[in-house]
Amino acid sequence: MDDQETVNDLQDSSLLDIDPDALREAEKVFAQGILDTMSGKEVAKATYEDTRVVVIMEDGTEYYFYGFMGESRA
Questions:
Q1: pLDDT in tens, 7-29
Q2: DSSP state at residue 3
Q3: What is the rounded CA–CA span in Å between residue 18 and residue 10?
Q4: Per the domain annotation, does 10 fall within a domain?
Q5: Domain count, the chain
Q6: For the whole model, what pTM was predicted?
Q7: Is there a domain that residue 12 lies in?
Q8: Which residues contact 24 (CB under 8 A, 6 or more apart)?
Q9: Highest mean pLDDT among 4-8, 26-30, 39-43
């Protein structure tokens, strides 16, 4: 199977039927779970990038948050 066949197979996939709002909500719930574990810890640095938010804790632990920011546009 060549790369073009693989791309064509992907285009026919049901993965393309994912509701972006539902995916964003699921990511928000996942992010909230991570944030809940950060209680009592200190944030050393947080950055907002094009596709994610990066939070670096005082102990060096890094957390990455994707996909829940913003709203869908019609």
A1: 566 555 555 677 878 887 888 88
A2: H
A3: 13
A4: no
A5: 1
A6: 0.55
A7: no
A8: 67, 68, 70, 72
A9: 39-43
How long, in residues, is the chain?
74
Has residue 3 been placed in a domain? no
Measured CA to CA, the distance from residue 24 to residue 72 in angstroms comes to: 9
34: Cβ contacts below 8 Å, ≥ 6 apart:
63, 65
Residue 71 lies in a domain: yes
How far apart (Å, rounded) are the C-alpha atoms in residues 35 and 41? 10
Q: How far is CA 36 from the centre of its chain?
A: 17
Task: List strands edge to edge, sheet with 62-66.
Answer: 43-48, 52-57, 62-66
Q: What tokens appear for 34 in the block?
A: 């991570």
Six-digit token pair at 71? 């709203």
Domain membership of residue 74 as a residue range: 19-74
